[in-house]
Amino acid sequence: MNSYKERLLTIVIPQHSENEEGIKPLLSSLNNQIGVDFSEITIFIIGDGGYQLSNDFFERFTQLNINYDYYIPAHGPGYARQRGLNLANSHYIAYLDADDMLNTVNALWKFTNVIRKSGHHEVIFSRYIEELKPNELGYNEFQVREFNPSAAYGKWIDVQYIREHKFFWHPLLPYAYEDTFFLDQVITFSKDIYYLDSPTYTWLYHTNSIVRKDVDYNRAHLNEYIRENRLWALEVKKRAPQRLYFDVNNGLANMYRFLKKHPPLKSIQQKVSDEFKAYLLENESYINLDYSQELLQTKDPSLDKQQYNSYLNKLLKKALFTDQVRISPYQFDHRELSIIVPFHGKDNRVLYPLLSSIARQVGVKLPQIEVIIIIDGGDHFSINLKDTFPDLNIKLFYLPKVVGPGPARSEGLKHAHGRFVMFCDADDQLYSCTSLFLMWQQVQKNPTAQIIMAKYANEQLNASKQPYLATWDYNFGSVYPSWFNLEFLRSYKIDFHPALHRYYEDTFFMGIAFRIAKKVVFLDKKIYTHTLNPNSLIHQSSIISRQKAFLTEFCRENYYWFKESQMRFPQTIQNDLNNFIVSLYYMYYQYNLNDKELDERLKVILSKIVKYNKNFWQGWTTQVQIIADKTASTDSAGITSQNLKKFISTFFNNE
Questions:
Q1: How many CB atoms lie within 10 A of CB 206?
Q2: In the chain, pLDDT over 90 holds for what percent of residues?
Q3: Which residues contact 465 (CB under 8 A, 6 or more apart)?
Q4: How far apart are CA 354 and CA 339, in angstroms?
Q5: How far apart are alpha carbons 152 and 94 in whole angstroms?
Q6: Does the N-terminal peptide bond of residue 329 adopt cis geometry, omega within 30 degrees of 0?
Q7: Strand (E) positions, 89-191?
Q8: Would you call 53 helix, strand, or coil by DSSP?
């Protein structure tokens, strides 16, 4: 069972090819731990494509709170670990490999004992044991290893420390040296590392593991080792430019040493050459061959100085003069804003007003904005939007079947790379050419903002059936026109509920986001236009049909809301129940549908709400009646509150 209360530890386990038997030693070693409170530990097994484990299999590990997150296709262990980090809601995170195990029954206790004795630390770093290749007699031997700064296992890392510094698993390192890049960040910039002088982890020997299946792992992945050095130099430029001179030249020495010790396989020689030249090109102004040669000599005095200078001079000359156009530095797939747009239909010209309003924005850099269009079960477009709007970074994702705007937006969130996320409907548009600039100004003024909310214009019909724009103030039931910090959403697992497809999916999402957010900024300007579309979901049926759907989906949304509240903020359930009862009462009598089939449907949902919240349910109380008596809203207009007690008795079955 998931819990959103912050726990002590999240354990993240990437799993790809391991079947139940393959991962059983690891889970058994976790299940057998002593001296720890398992209610404080959450385990995320991230199924990275490949073999899909059976959920029934996890039931045998009675001590463990296991969550299995499986997706296809595979993206590699680095992606899986980042996904686990996004899901973590705990003080610490620990990474384990699916085919390894903890080495003693008190391995986790050793970490908690450190905390008990010396307090919390940014990193708690332990030793590990390596199982060696079987000897000639077929026996495995084991060796205690020193502290390994390039492997994720054997460490507890403070989650808040990671998030405050925005450390991440790089998507351009999917299979090799992804640990090195992540831990270089974590360890280099930490001011509080506790070294636990005791092994807690066993790196088991598997002939088919990524590291061991090659004749020489470094020969087969040397290009990725150099790529990791490139990416690290880019990271240092942002985080600590004062140390870039040393890091660039030290990286040169390390790469050359690796190159001599592990000559690349023929199949990757060109890739190695290209990566090396790109490193030189990107860091030319920091390179000092004499200094890097000194660093090389301290690492391996046996390497020839002349050969080193000759090789690098030749490569540097080639990079600067012959291959400069072909080689380009890695670009982070990071945007300032992701605009997510669900779309269902065949005529993509519906999107033209929205995309045009984005393309004509001023005061912002369009390349820093990505427009993610989720095709909700429709056909592929006949008109190429990227040709029509060449200035926009448009990304299309197709869903095989119709899921509705809520789940479609959820799919968009999975693909977003922006610092902030904005949701737009396909048939709406931005209010003015400065809409995004006005929001971006608020980001500049409030860099820690988790949500930025503006006002919007709503197209309506007057008495003569002529359209006009009415100004709407802040709407806490609709996702537009707000910007949401993407890291904030992912850190707290704020998403659209998969069971809410057409109605109130915004309400659910917004309710969670605003309950959790600690920094919300309000912009007193209109930035969005909600247009009147007679063919939209909300206008495709008669008023009576829509009202029936509103009542049903309002109750369903609250059913899922209270389930979420049990985990996130149970202290508000009593008050939320009272407000829900009163709101439903006025909606029901305002619509005045007199539909027995609808009544029975509502009773079923409401009885589930009562049953699920039995510890909070009080039925009719004077407090509920006072709330109803004081309610003044569109739904309550002309409706007496005197029938509330009878309404509760009729519809809320507590049996």
A1: 16
A2: 47
A3: none
A4: 11
A5: 8
A6: no
A7: 90-95, 101-102, 123-131, 142-145, 155-158
A8: coil
Element (H, E) at 461: strand 451-461
CA distance 637 to 631: 9
Percentage of the chain with pLDDT > 70? 91
In this predicted model, what pLDDT tens digit does every residue of 564-614 receive, in sequence order? 888 888 888 899 999 999 999 999 999 888 889 999 999 999 999 998 888
**Main-chain dihedrals φ then ψ at residue 570, nearest 5 degrees:** -60, -20
The encoded tokens of residue 272 equal 């190695």
Global pTM exceeds 0.85: no
- What are the φ and ψ backbone dihedral angles of 7, each rounded to 5 degrees? -100, 180
Using alpha carbons only, how large is the chain's radius of gyration in Å?
Answer: 29
DSSP state of 289: H
Is residue 12 within 8 A of residue 93, CB to CB? The reply is yes
DSSP state letter for 138: S
Report the distance separating Cα 607 and Cα 651, nearest Å: 8
Q: How far is CA 444 from CA 416, 438, 452, in A?
A: 21, 10, 12
Nearest-5° angle of CA 140, CA 96, CA 216?
55
Residue 232: its H or E element: helix 222-239
Q: Are strands 418-423 and 482-485 parallel, antiparallel or unpaired?
A: antiparallel
DSSP string, 192-257: -EEEEEEEEEEE---TTSTTTSSSSHHHHSHHHHHHHHHHHHHHHHHH-GGGHHHHHHHHHHHHHH
Burial of 622 (0-12, 13-18, 19+ CB in 10 A): exposed
The residues, any chain, with a CB within 8 Å of residue 336's CB and separated by 6 or more, are 364, 365, 368, 369, 418, 419, 420, 440, 443
- Euclidean distance between CA atoms 441 and 430, whole angstroms: 16
Which SS3 state, helix, strand or coil, does residue 504 take?
coil
Residue whose C-alpha is closest to residue 70's, from 58, 53, 87: 53
DSSP strand pairing (393-399 vs 369-376): parallel
Q: Is the peptide bond before 171 cis (omega within 30 degrees of 0)?
A: no
Nearest to 238, CA basis, from 189, 169, 289, 292: 189
Q: How far apart are CA 570 and CA 550, in angstroms?
A: 26
Q: Which residue's structure tokens are 């992945």?
A: 221
Which of 106-120, 342-356, 531-545 bottoms out in mean pLDDT, i.e. has the lowest? 531-545
pLDDT tens digits for range 440-494 = 999 988 888 999 999 999 887 777 777 778 888 888 889 999 999 998 898 888 9
Interacting residues of 386 by C-beta distance below 8 A, sequence separation 6+: 392, 394
Q: Hey, what amino acid is at 622?
A: T
Give the span between the Cα atoms of 206 and 192, in whole angstroms.
34
The residue with tokens 């590291």 is 211
Question: Could you give the CA distance from residue 400 to residue 43 in angstroms, rounded to a whole number?
Answer: 31
Q: How far apart are the first and last CA of the chain?
A: 25
DSSP, residue by residue, 397-452: EEESS---HHHHHHHHHHH--EEEEEE--TT-EESSTTHHHHHHHHHHH-TT-SEE
Residues contacting residue 52 through CB under 8 Å, at least 6 positions apart: 70
How many whole angstroms separate alpha carbon 532 and alpha carbon 323?
55
Cα(391)–Cα(371) distance, rounded to whole angstroms? 11
